[in-house]
Each structure stands twice: as structure tokens, then as C-alpha cells.
Amino acid sequence: MKMHLPLAVAVGAALPLSALALDAGVALQHGSHKSGAAEMKIVHALLTRYLDAVKGKHWAEAKQLLHPKTLAVIAEQQRLGREEHPMAPSHHEKEYYLKAYQIVGTRFAASAFVLAVAEDNYQVAKSVVVQEQAAYLVGKYRGKWYVVDKKRGESFSDESIKLGYPGYFDHLQFPREEEEED
After folding, report:
1. Residue 179: pLDDT above 60?
2. Which domain holds residue 107?
3. CA dist., res. 129 & res. 162, Å (int)
4. What confidence tens digit (pLDDT) does each residue in 31-78 have?
5. Residue 123 and residue 10: Cα distance in Å, rounded?
6. pLDDT at 105 exceeding the cut of 80
7. CATH number assigned to the domain comprising residue 89
8. Burial of 61 (0-12, 13-18, 19+ CB in 10 A)
9. DSSP string covering the chain
10. Do the domain assignments include residue 49?
11. Residue 180 CB coordination number (10 Å)
12. In the structure, what pLDDT confidence band is assigned to residue 20 with cuts at 50, 70 and 90?
């Protein structure tokens, strides 16, 4: 299984973690003629860094890439004794953990990006690797890009993002693909 996109690896490897938190002015200077292409490269690089950290069980590095509001939700769940959030993979490592992944699709939705990922997760109890589909929500908040949430076996709709994540994202707007072709 191919691990990830070569461009995402090249961009992610060349940037320190702090460089992924770029402001909109810098992000648009990458020479892209297509609206949102530069942001898409940044989003892919960010998710690649996050997934590489999770795969390597580098929990502190992965946590640095999470949205502040996501971290607050995880902290509240910990306080209540129910750390079940999908963005707290260290909690689940005794049950399953990420072995490999491939980003298979990206779309813009409601001021954020939804990335489809094919994951190979090792299930500890069964001693077997299981292939699963996951969707990750990535967005910009106060000028910085963050990984926000994950859904296993389903995706994020525009409506679910608008209703479920109020105040999570800076307002971003890109033309739809159909409008760009006119």
C-alpha cells in the first residue's frame, strides 16, 4: 500500500511544524493559478504530518497539530473519565493503532477541507490489520491550519460541519469546480 502522496511528503518534510501554521497571505503566494490549490497542498502536508505522528506514536507532535477547540473537548472527556474522542489515538492504542494510510480524496466544504483516507489499523485483540475508510476535517482558525476531527466509516457533510463546528474556522470560500470551468 502506498503510504502517502509524494508532494505531501516533500512539502511536509521541508516544513517545520510551526511553518504549517501559515497565514492566508503566505499560503496564496505559492504560484497556483487555481483557487484553493495552495491551501490544498498545505492541508495535505498538515494531515500527512499528523498521520505520520500518529503512526509513529509520537503523541505530543500529533497533539500540536490539533485544533484548540478539539483539544478542549478531549480534555473535558478526560476530566469525565471517557476519553473516547477519535482525535485521541493514544487512548485507543491498546485496542487498535494506525499501521499505514493513503490520502485518497480531498474536497472543500463549509470553510474547511474534508480528506478521505484509507487506513490500515492493527486490531490488537485479533492480531490482524483491518482496512478502514476515514474522513478527516482540516481547517484554518485564527490564521493557522489545524486537524479538527475524524470520522470512521463515514464523512462530513457541509451541513454537519456548519452545525457541528460553529466558530471553529476562519471564513474561507473557493469557487466550486463547475463555476471554475465556465
Report:
1. no
2. 6-180
3. 34
4. 334 557 889 999 999 999 999 999 999 999 999 999 999 999 999 998
5. 30
6. yes
7. 3.10.450.50
8. middle
9. ---S-HHHHHHHHHS-GGGGS--HHHHGGG--SSTTHHHHHHHHHHHHHHHHHHHTT-HHHHHHTB-HHHHHHHHHHHHTT----TT-HHHHTTTEEEEEEEEEEEEEETTEEEEEEEEEEEETTTTEEEEEEEEEEEEEETTEEEEEEEEESS---HHHHHHH-TTSS-------HHHHT-
10. yes
11. 11
12. very low
1 in a structural domain: no
Looking up cell 463555476 gives 179
C-alpha cell at 122: 492493527
Q: Give the global pTM.
A: 0.77
Instruction: Pick the more confident residue, 82 or 17.
Output: 82
- The tally of domains found in the chain comes to 1
